[in-house]
Amino acid sequence: MATAPRPTGDPRFKDARAAKIAELITPAITAQGLHLEEIELAANGPSTTLKVSVDLLSGTEQVDLDTIAELSQAISARFDEDDVLPELDTYDLEVSTPGATRPLTEPRHFERNLGRLLEITQAGHSPILARLQGVSEHAISVVEQKPAPKKGMPVKYGEPAEIAFAAITHARVQVEFSHTQ
Which of 25, 27, 102, 129 is deepest in the core (most CB within 10 A)? Predict the structure, then answer.
């Protein structure tokens, strides 16, 4: 799988403090129909910046800004309840989504990007551009995009192919400005 499958234990939370925060805020995140992607704590002078990354579990829709704002308020309210995190005396909360070009590391990341153009690197091979056609339990189905022979000519596509998650060393969505799905 791209960027190696996650081992047991949850590396989304780099330390015990982040794991504790995840435990506290996960109910607010799931209440919004979202999945907690990652928590990052960064010292920023006298305060701490708490970065919370969330995404939808499935589908190809995007998380809207109203949902992010509501979630941010819910997380802040949870922290204010009985001062559950006294070690975070002052903090700046940043709630966001992972972004369009984040590395795809889990099958659900691929499922959320069906129909999109990906740059995929397999062990021992050069990166390819391919349109994601499907996702199964162990692999993705893609159609490789061949470079146009001359500027302005239509893009050519290869034959459909299947790539096992185990063979993918890196995968990322390529932002397109003119493709319609």
Answer: 25
Domain span at residue 168 reads 107-173
11 in any annotated domain: no
pLDDT in tens, 95-151: 999 887 789 999 999 999 999 999 999 999 999 999 999 999 999 999 999 877 788
* Neighbour tally for 104: CB within 10 Å: 28
- Looking at the structure of the chain, the number of domains it has is 2
What is 3-14 written as a DSSP string? T----SS-TTB-
| Short-list 113, 125, 127, CA closest to 176 | 113
Which of 70, 96, 122 is at the close of a domain?
A: 96
Amino acid at 67: T
